[in-house]
Amino acid sequence: MCASQNPRNSIKNRLLAALPPEEYERLLPYMELVSLDFKQILYAPNEPIQYVYFPNSGVGSLLSLVESGDAVEVGTVGNEGMVGLPVFLGANSIPGEAIQQIPGEGMRMGADVFQREVTPGSPLYRLLQLYTQALFNLIAQSSACNRLHSIEQRFCRWMLMTRDRVGADQFPLTQEFLAQMLGVRRASVSEVAATIARAGFISYKYGKMTLLDTEGLESTSCECYAIVKREFERLLGGNSAFS
Predict the structure, then answer these.
(1) Residue 90 sits in a domain of what CATH number?
(2) Which residues contact 219 (CB under 8 A, 6 or more apart)?
(3) Beta-sheet strands, E only, within the chain
(4) 114 and 17 part of one domain
(5) Residue 151 and residue 182 in contact, taking contact as beta carbons nearer than 8 Å
(6) Which value, in Å, is the radius of gyration of the alpha carbons in the chain?
(7) Domain limits for position 206
(8) pTM
(9) pLDDT band at 112 (very low <50, low <70, confident <90, very high)
């Protein structure tokens, strides 16, 4: 993990960018720009959360775990949000886990500093209230989607959401994460990816996913992608990665 000497020039997080200049300047000394590496643990199950992260790039994955050790992705965080909402909500640990799924970089702040400096009524606090609702909507919609829609529909929804967060049509992705995001076996992931690739919507080689036809993906995706996108835009407006 590395820190930059000039973090302000690299700020791309939508929440931080939406702050009034004076509030951003006030908080800046408490933050550092760090790299977010593939599979880096951002917080671990039932352990104190040390930092909150405001991603500039890449995608973080919020995982729900069971006793067998299996994990299922319940939400993702890109540059529209913050990893570490339990700290904002007053908790210092949760049973779930957050890891970096697609490498990038972000601004990191100590959890204790965050709780001291981001107080009720402050600009960032108000933004995080809206972001919390938007993320709750995403998790709730994903839960319904996993129950009601086909693997192919869910696959296309996740690809489009990841594209929105990464801001590019190509990103690194492993079959392990594909299985976690869909809550299915890796063999099922391979079958679905092959089907979508034959349709000409994606290309997947050497651990890199390339979206070739986003309109085709949108036509195959369920309505959940549009619902989540609309809710982020409604709550966060121009601060959303989806706008």
Answers:
(1) 2.60.120.10
(2) none
(3) 31-36, 41-43, 51-55, 59-65, 71-77, 97-102, 104-110, 170-172, 202-205, 208-211
(4) yes
(5) yes
(6) 18
(7) 150-221
(8) 0.86
(9) very high
